[in-house]
Design brief:
mainly beta; two-stranded antiparallel sheet; 89 residues
C-alpha cells in the first residue's frame, strides 16, 4: 500500500486482517469494505514494549496539487497506556 516501516523505530507496524493474538484488539471488519476481507495496519503495544517506544510508517513524498489535498484515515486505540498517535505532514 506504499507504506514502509521506519528502520530507526523501536518496533514495527504489520499489515493485518481479522483478530489479533491480543485479547480485544484488532478489527473485526476493515473500514474500506466493512467486511473481514480487507486489511489494516496494526502495532502490538503490550510487553515487551516500553514507554516512549515508537513505531513509524513512512510514505513517499506526495506532490502538491492545485486546490489542495486531503489526508483521511481511520484509527482505533484501545487499552491502558496505549500512548499517542502522531501524524506528521
Amino acid at each position: 500500500c506504499g507504506y514502509k516501516n521506519d528502520a530507526t523505530a523501536e518496533f514495527t507496524w504489520s499489515r493485518h486482517k481479522g483478530a489479533t493474538s491480543s485479547s480485544s484488539t484488532g478489527a473485526t471488519n476493515d473500514h474500506t469494505y466493512g467486511t473481514g476481507i480487507g486489511y489494516y495496519m496494526y502495532i502490538e503495544t503490550s510487553l515487551p514494549r516500553q514507554p516512549n517506544d515508537k513505531a513509524r510508517l513512512i510514505t513517499s513524498q506526495y506532490e502538491a496539487v492545485a486546490g489542495g489535498s486531503c489526508l483521511q484515515f481511520f484509527y482505533h486505540m484501545w487499552g491502558v497506556d496505549t500512548g499517542a498517535l502522531n501524524v506528521y505532514l
